[in-house]
Design brief:
Shape: globular
CATH superfamily of the largest domain: 2-enoyl-CoA Hydratase, Chain A, domain 1
Structural class: alpha/beta
Bound molecules: nicotinamide-adenine-dinucleotide
Mean pLDDT: 96
Strand content: 5-15%
Number of strands: 18
Distance between the termini: 35 Å
Number of helices: 27
């Protein structure tokens, strides 16, 4: 029984859960808990039981890796454990420190007395997985902290310190200092003073005019829950605490939990929870891989990206040297960083001391030689291979041995950039997204020669700067932007054939994208894509060029929000997109030139084309090994491209729709005249072997 220690402290049995890192309540620990409980109850020398957790946690709750496996329902499952603890003939006292969340808190709620360190972190975060607490949490918590407080705590899902519950019967005592010693003393007192066992199920919930409150809560929550069913079901579960018996309410909770487990929204959120954890693992780079110390960072280029990139490290306590070619550009870059921090200061997100410390970690320079002491140097200069060549040669000349040399390029070949140096093993792509100090995603681009140690180091560093890092192989656009190309092509094809940009945007936003493709393009600047198309055309001079409506738009100077006109028009100083008849005229002209007969598209038809374009390209790059797993692609689209979390990412969505259906639709689109819609080989392969994209 290694996952639970059983020790006797006089007449008190001390049960210490010991399943690192957070005592997740997987099958082994659940079994061990029941066995230890039986042992203590069967031992005449034991008068009371203290239940606690080793290390950082009381318990972080259910083992989510078990969720969609039979082990989740293997007896004793959590509901059984919770009932057995509550029924224990001998008093059980929970001693809570560190993390006490989800099933961990539900376990604590089933004990007869609870003592806690004031700093213990308490939460029922199931709502974040599209669920509700399913082991009695919705029934017991309101009996201790009241209906209203329990509802907002469970719907919010955020952790609170135990100290916040001072004065409620949730905790019998808050113990400063040695928690275990305090818990044993408390248990001794329960025994010697014969304090009767207090089962939470026996308490009653009282709330004057609860019907009115619950109706109010339903209306409020409906307004903010969006597509997620869990928050309203939580209200139903909490309302069930008012049933005449605990058992009735408990049965309702169990039914609602099961219903939520089966919703596509919860499946998607659970998938993303696992996806985030999986992304940090690289199949051929073991966790034991040595990491290099990163104590100082150099950033070359203080433009849009360089400034934001620098802020990530300043925030994490790592000093940064920012390099520019001209004093003026350097001053501008530093002024932008200062202004950003001042904004946070004004909003109260940063203290005066934080502001001063962060600025003190930043140094500007015009000398590449100042980078000689940096452990990591990130290049964020113009997107031009000859500029990158000059800069990487200079980096190679000044950087110390073992320094990591990174490029923030979005489109250029990282292997070629590595070849400009004499140390390609130390070169890697760190593709930040704009604004780099805000966006969660970091695409880590692994070159042919990139050392495993370098990869392990940047993955560790990504955690430190609070990014979600996803590894991509080298190809045009890596994961995110490569998939964007066919997505864009599908969106443009739709408007070329008869849809309007606003119809496409509305359909995609109704699907759940944060912003439709044409609004995104107007925001980012239509000239960016134009420049990329021109440079690609220059690279392949013989390739035939199809007249492109986006080029025609740019030729009119309609670059988007920054010029007041793009796919939409904008009032001066406003960001609200206004449909523009001039764009309709442009599209009509385009169709006339190409002899295209305008046709109508349904919103479903629009979504299918745009989303299936993402799916098909995702499957292609997965098949090529550019992404290690389907869930990595989902993380990229969730954190960098505004794909809706409740759909789980394009690859998860494809599996939910069913690959048979996806392949049939793609084949039908290909028959409509464009062979690029042919299903990716991986989709065909998965279909023939009965696998999902994984
Ligand atoms: P930018 O034009 O805003 O900034 C580039 C900066 O680099 C300028 O301030 C310029 O003075 C400086 N610079 C140029 N040559 C230099 C040199 N030899 N030494 C030092 N400084 C030099 O460009 P940006 O948008 O920040 O893009 C930088 C890189 O990041 C590009 O590779 C781009 O593809 C990539 N990127 C951009 C975005 C984005 O949304 N802007 C997103 C991801 C990646």
């Amino acid at each position: 029984m290694t996952c639970l220690q059983y020790t006797l402290k006089g007449r008190i049995a001390l049960l210490t859960m010991a399943q690192p890192p957070v005592n997740s309540l997987g099958y082994e620990l659940r079994s061990a808990l029941v066995a230890a409980l039986d042992r203590a109850n069967g031992d005449p020398a034991v008068s009371a039981i203290v239940l606690t957790g080793s290390d950082r946690a009381f318990s972080g709750g259910a083992d989510i890796r078990e969720f969609d496996t039979p082990r989740f329902m293997l007896e004793p499952h959590l509901r059984t454990v919770v009932d057995l603890v509550e029924q224990s003939a001998k008093p059980v006292i929970a001693a809570i420190h560190g993390v006490c969340m989800g099933g961990g808190l539900e376990l604590a709620l089933s004990t007869h007395f609870r003592v806690a360190s004031p700093s213990a972190s308490i939460a029922l975060p199931e709502v974040k997985l599209g669920l509700l607490p399913g082991a009695g949490g919705t029934q017991r918590l309101p009996r201790l902290i009241g209906l209203e407080a329990a509802l907002s705590f469970i719907v919010g899902g955020q952790p609170l310190p135990a100290a916040q519950f001072k004065g409620t019967p949730l905790f019998n005592e808050l113990i400063e200092g040695d928690l275990i010693a305090g818990a044993i003393t408390f248990a001794e007192r329960v025994v010697s003073e014969k304090i009767p066992i207090q089962r939470v199920r026996d308490l009653k919930v009282r709330y004057p005019s609860h019907e009115a409150f619950l109706q109010f809560a339903r209306n409020m929550i409906k307004g903010v829950a969006g597509p997620y069913p869990a928050p309203l079901k939580i209200v139903d579960a909490i309302a069930a605490t008012l049933k005449p018996t605990f058992a009735e309410g408990d049965a309702i909770e169990q039914r609602l939990f099961t219903e939520l487990m089966l919703t596509p929204e919860s499946r998607a959120l659970r998938h993303l929870f696992q996806a985030e954890r999986a992304a940090s693992k690289i199949p051929d780079v073991p966790d034991t891989t040595a990491m290099r110390a990163i104590a100082s960072v150099g950033v070359i280029g203080a433009g849009t990206m360089g400034g934001g990139i620098a802020m990530n490290f300043l925030n994490a306590g790592i000093p940064v040297i920012l390099i520019e070619t001209k004093q003026e550009a350097l001053d501008r870059g530093i002024a932008t960083i200062t202004k950003n921090y001042q904004g946070s200061l004004l909003k109260g997100k940063l203290t005066e001391a934080d502001f001063t410390q962060r600025m003190a970690r930043l140094r500007g320079s015009l000398q590449m030689s100042d980078l000689a002491t940096c452990d990591l140097i990130i290049e964020a200069v113009f997107e031009d291979i000859s500029v990158k060549e000059t800069v990487f040669k200079a980096m190679d000349a000044v950087a110390k041995p073992g320094a990591i040399l990174a490029t923030n390029t979005s489109t250029l070949d990282v292997n070629r950039i590595a070849s400009f140096t004499r140390r390609p093993a130390d070169v890697i792509g760190l593709h930040f997204f704009s604004p780099a100090n805000v966006m969660k995603l970091l695409e880590v681009v692994r070159g042919q020669a990139t050392a495993k140690e370098v990869l392990a180091t940047v993955m560790g560093l990504a955690k430190k700067i609070k990014k979600i890092a996803v590894v991509a192989g080298v190809c045009d656009g890596f994961i995110g932007n490569r998939m964007l190309m066919p997505y864009w092509a599908a969106a443009e094809d739709l408007i070329a054939r008869g849809a309007t940009p606003w119809q496409v945007d509305q359909a995609m936003e109704a699907f759940g994208m944060v912003m439709g493709p044409f609004r995104v393009s107007d925001l980012a600047g239509n000239d960016i894509g134009w420049a990329i198309r021109k440079s690609r055309a220059a690279l392949h001079p013989g390739r035939p060029v199809k007249p492109n409506v986006a080029d025609a738009l740019c030729e009119l100077g309609r670059f988007g929000q920054k010029t007041g006109k793009g796919w939409y028009r904008y009032e001066a100083g406003q960001r609200a997109p206004i449909p523009d008849p001039d764009v309709i005229a442009l599209l009509d002209q385009h169709r006339k030139t190409l002899g295209i007969q305008a046709r109508a598209f349904t919103d479903d038809g629009i979504v299918t084309r745009c989303v299936y374009a993402l799916i098909n390209e995702g499957a292609k790059l997965l098949g090529e090994g550019i992404a290690a797993r389907a869930s990595d692609i989902d993380m990229v689209y969730l954190t960098g491209y505004g794909f809706p979390a409740y759909r789980g990412g394009p690859m998860h969505y494809a599996n939910e729709v069913g690959l048979f259906q996806v392949a049939r639709t793609l084949t039908a689109l290909a028959k409509d005249g464009d062979s690029s819609w042919e299903p990716a080989p991986l989709i065909v392969d998965c279909l023939s072997t009965g696998r999902a994209l994984s």
